[in-house]
Amino acid sequence: MQRNHETVFQAVSQTQRGVSMENADQKQFLEQVAAIQESVVQIAWSKYKPNDDIESLLYEVTYDVLADLFAYIDGYGGACAQKMDIVNVQTGKGLKQDPFMELHDAIADYLKWEKERK
Fold it and tell me: Could you give phi then psi for residue 20, rounded to 5 degrees?
């Protein structure tokens, strides 16, 4: 039996509803991640044309999701304007410290947003 996009989305949504959140911050964070994904996919889908290069589209979508997620962690946008950090549990050090960095700015030096042209 082949599943269409809507069927898969409904199945995932039902699974997600069954997960209980430990606290309001976790719930808010995960809802924002879901909103970022939905927004980026819808924007990409509206720009997509049948003859477009899929590889470039995938680079653009993944870059946009990560940039938006890191901007959210950095304290920009979304319902929560709190600055967050990613902490190494073994060392206790925050990823954004020593020296201070904003993740959404730093990824531009590492990630592609389009396929490299030859």
Answer: -90, 140
Report the distance separating Cα 118 and Cα 114, nearest Å.
12
Looking at the chain, the number of H-run helices and the number of E-run strands are 4, 0
* All residues at 6 or more sequence positions from 48 whose CB lies less than 8 Å from its CB, including other chains: 57
3-state SS string over 24-41?
HHHHHHHHHHHHHHHHHH
Rounded CA-CA distance 70/73 in Å is 5
Tens-level pLDDT at each residue, the chain (118 residues): 344 444 444 444 445 566 666 788 889 889 999 999 999 999 999 999 989 889 999 999 999 999 999 999 999 876 556 889 999 999 999 999 999 999 999 999 999 887 776 6
| 35: nearest Cα among 65, 7, 58 | 65
pTM for this entry: 0.75
- Are 67 and 38 a contacting pair, CB within 8 Å? no
How many Å apart are CA 15 and CA 19, to the nearest integer? 7
